[in-house]
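Here is an idea for our session: we take a single protein and study its fold together. To get us started, please write out a protein record for me. Once you have written the record down, we can walk along the chain together.
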Amino acid sequence: MRITIRDKCSTNASSLFIQSTYRISRHFAMLFSNSTFATFPLDFGFDRPTVRMLSQPQHHSNEHMNHRALSVLVFCILAFPMAFKFTFTREHTPNDRPLLDSSIYISGFFRPIVSIFNTVYFVLSPKTILLYCTIAHGKPTPSRMDLVNETVHLVQGKEYINRLWRHSFGSRALSLHVYLFKHWFAMPQKIIDKYLADDSGSGPKPHPLSSVETQNRTDRLSHSVFKDVLSGSDTASLCQRYVLRLCKALDQSDISMSWTSQPDLVDFVRGALTLANTEALWGTHLTETSDFCGDLTEFFQDTRKYTYQLPRWLIPKAFARRDRLLSDLHRWQSFATGVDGHVAPWEDSKYNDGKWGSKRLRKWQADFLEMDDADAAGLASVHLTFAWAVNVSLGPAAFWAVQEIFRDPTLLERVRSRLPRAQSAADVTSLLSQAQTREEICADPLLQSIYTEILRLRVCAFVVRRFPHDSVDLHGWRVPRDQICLVSTHIAHMHGDEWNTDGGKEPLNRFWANRFLVLKTDTDTKLAPPATSKLCPEDPWKFSLRGLEGVWIPFGGGPRACPGRHLAKHHMLVTMAAMVMLFDIDIAASDRPLRASHANHGLGTLLPVGKVPFSIRRRV
């Protein structure tokens, strides 16, 4: 028997849908059986996706055939509501009734059924279901997805995303954040309740309809710690401390002038970057008294286990790691704020930020403790949240940039020609310690294009907004009050005709270092160039992001855009420069592009599948 499914969507999307539904049907069928499951081979043709169920010999047992019947039944149950939903989403036109405000979307009996299957798909394969729901006629389009306990409005498309950013000042994103606070970072419930009760917004003045007291404006406190610490007056000294810590970590690594093999380039780059970034923000005291960075790196991988809310007895090592991280931060908080006779308050004129951490971070800590019901345990949980946020995506992003540079000899030579020459590791530290040198590196067109392309290709984040007081109009697509808006950076970055593909020669699923470069003489382009190179004045290329507002969105956008985006750019480009100036790297199997794992889809920068072995030697 052959079942042929035709749809207006692309063949690839149809095939992925059938495969995903088929896999889930197998899992469901196996739950009800202890014996071997009857296998149905899938045959997906290029022009027409099909599910081919091969005829079986007549001597198969009734039990065996029952398994087949059960799996077919589960497949049909799964496929019908999902296919109905996807077809409706795909076949609407811009002139139809706004989908986000449609009462005929799916109602009655099928709506709760669809919400269950949507939730299952969203947990197991968020990339696939969001792609189905938002790509209409080949273009990103808003849609709505009903989950078991929430209605999520999927906002895609340049004009809709830009409109969402403009409304974001009065928004919040507590649904996702509260879940992470509770299950990932072990925040006490009394602090979570303060976050849930806050509807005042993140601005200097609370929303007129809010009655939250000033000291309990948790949204403002959370936003201010990122804004003040990562983009405030302390930024210059923070960058300087980062450079010194990074060069020290790389110089002290066990790398000689001869080639040596290493097991994983991800660990090498991320380890040095995480250590430097953590010491720049929290000071050396935190890392000298514990293996904080080692536990933090492992914690990044543990978060998926916390998401499933597995009990402690099933994942004791993950819970023990988190307990150590919180204990380290708790000890750091008390030791560095004058408790037990130690003198290191943030307001002390003799304060050593290299040892005790950012002064702005200390000031924010004092403000947090003024909140009702605030205590040391809640503060440690927020510090852990901050440590995760500033490190989890930056290390993998730097890895992707480094491996793309070193796997392409031509690109490596182009990058090295733009960097200052160094005769020793001390020269590298001295050069990168100069603010002017770092400014020139961060403004170089090629380096900026590499950085921008890496974030486009590898950052896969969900940007969440909720408007507690008013509904929002997105060019005729209305989002009701107090419902979730979700933007997928992956869909925005991988679809649309705004991108430069060199006439189709450089597709969006592949790294291209020149994607954001245009000729200086090219004045008639949607990528008009604002930046030229000081390191290489004869370079004919310029860098530009013009025309990509609402399309290139790795940091979100609007007033709630990531306040650490400028610091992240500095750290990543400086790390790229230091690696290129200090080392030669040969990546094993460099003739094959690395595949990215979507295990943590929606949570930041993707990691590669498996380890990335490499050989390395010093240049200076």
In short: The first strand starts at residue 2 and ends at 4. The mean pLDDT is 79.
